[in-house]
Amino acid sequence: MAPTARPTVAQPLSPHLQIYRWTWTMAMSVFHRITGTALYGGTALVAIWLVALASGPVAYSYVAGFFGSIVGRLILFAYTWVLMHHMLGGLRHLVWDTGVGFDRDRRLSMARLTLVGSIALTIVIWAVALLVR
């Protein structure tokens, strides 16, 4: 027996990024996930530095030379921002876990503060580090 043909019915589409309008909260959530992933790479850099430190002056001089170069400093600057952004995003989520900050205005201001605060903290950290150096 041949199977009978079923009539085609238009199925609803699942929501996707072309339907959603980007908001500050959504963008900071995406950045939080990206920075969390980027922290793995930064942790590898810290591990490389520690292994070089334990391996002796020759190995350490290579790693210190790389981190002292323009490219190395840019990577460290980016890693500092990633760390600060992820930390502030985590604090934002911690505040939400208490049940506070879900109204529209607070959500928006906390999302903006996450971005602005991470940039400001990164600049302050590097300014202090360069002045102390």
Q: Concise description?
A:
It is built from four helices and no strands. By secondary structure, it is mainly α. It has one domain (24-132): Fumarate reductase/succinate dehydrogenase, transmembrane subunit (3 helical TM bundles of succinate and fumarate reductases, Up-down Bundle).
Features:
mainly alpha, 76% helix, 133 residues, 3 helical TM bundles of succinate and fumarate reductases
Describe, in plain words, how this protein is organized in 3D.
By secondary structure, the protein is mainly alpha-helical. The protein has helices at 24-55, 57-68, 70-97, 104-132. The protein has a single domain (24-132), classed as 3 helical TM bundles of succinate and fumarate reductases (Up-down Bundle), CATH 1.20.1300.10. It is built from four helices and no strands. Helix 1 packs antiparallel against helix 2 (57-68), helix 1 packs parallel to helix 4 and helix 2 crosses helix 3 (70-97). The protein is flat. The model has no long low-confidence stretch (mean pLDDT 91).
Question: Shape, please?
Answer: flat
Helix content: over 70%
Mean pLDDT across every amino acid position: 91
Radius of gyration, whole Å? 23 Å
CATH H-level superfamily: Fumarate reductase/succinate dehydrogenase, transmembrane subunit
Strand-and-helix sequence, N→C? HHHH
CATH architecture: Up-down Bundle
DSSP helical segment count: 4
| Total number of beta strands | 0
The fraction of residues in strands falls at under 5%
- Please state the structural category: mainly alpha
Largest sheet: none
Tally the structural domains: 1
Q: Low-confidence runs (pLDDT<50, min 5 residues)? A: none
What CATH first level would be assigned?
A: Mainly Alpha
CATH fold type: 3 helical TM bundles of succinate and fumarate reductases
Alpha-carbon distance between the termini?
84 Å
